[in-house]
User: Fold this.
Amino acid sequence: MGLLEFANFTVPDVVKKSIPSFYAKDPMLEAIRSRNKVIRSGGTNVRFTRIKSGHSDISELTGSNLEIPLAKKETFDTGTGDWTRLVKPIILPHLDRDRMQSNADKKRWVQDTTMAVLQSFHNQVSRQLYVGDVAALKGLGTLNGSKTGLSSQGFENGALRFQTPTAQESAGVTYLGITRNEDLVNDEDNWYNQFVTHTGFATDYLEVAEQIKITADSYAADSEGISLGILSIADHVELGKGIRQYGASAVQAVTYRPEDLEGGKAHRTIYVAGGIKYHPNRFMTETRMDAVVGTGKEYVYLLNPNGLEWWVNANNDFRVTKFSDHTVHGNMDADIAYCFLEVQMCVPSLLTQGCTFWAA
Assistant:
């Protein structure tokens, strides 16, 4: 079997097997997937309906009051946004191909090259979701509300602002085409994410996280509420230290015996506090996360997976094309295929999501 035929036979299978791994390795995407919030469609727009008001006024019926006002309020808002379409080439240079001494070498080379391309693609998608600074992925929505000027309509701005609800309304930064609003009168027409500053993992972080969770969960229709925390690796370590020392009494560290390790019982370090599981993210360094409203540190996303959605075109979920010989294409002497991804990350329930940082 020639290399071109082998690549066309092997690469699609490698890509297909890598897709479940991509979702499983990212705690947010895995949480979205496990809660059936992955919306697979052939469409091109994100569209959802938001309940924005009390619809009508309540009247108390008394012996002398038989008149019921029928004034109707605007009940719904419609949020819309465009998907992003991404493509990444898989390049098998003939110069490298001609060095292969056997079919086994060629097979390993094709598989390793494909996995390298996919790993790079996955990393860029993950970094954009949490940080929003991947120039080539400006159309993909990000959680980082300090990022503005992205390219997909409706997702020009990040979802979660590191500002109080009042400041979010004053800033006038929209999300999904809807203006952020804080209704202090009737607590009905609200469109903002929860935010409170903290002063360090070793001081009041756990209390602040609890406050954000209680507030956000009061708006949630599900019983789970905020259950997922995402923060940088360095901050994850500091959070663990704070949890172990909380209340000025050291907590016994988790240890593994050799038979535990041999039995596969060891797992990734995940801290659980106040009903929230915290996972580290290596892209969320403080220099990348600094908000436009000022510099800060110890950034944390506090997420309710039931209020998140991942829209994906099922026909372009890391779909790879057939390889073709590009000997006469520009100056590239190689076999080339393209990997397509058509997706969007959507937060249709801002009120049930939160974030915090330590203002520096």
Remarks:
- Residues 144 and 326 are 39 Å apart (CA to CA).
- The mean pLDDT is 87.
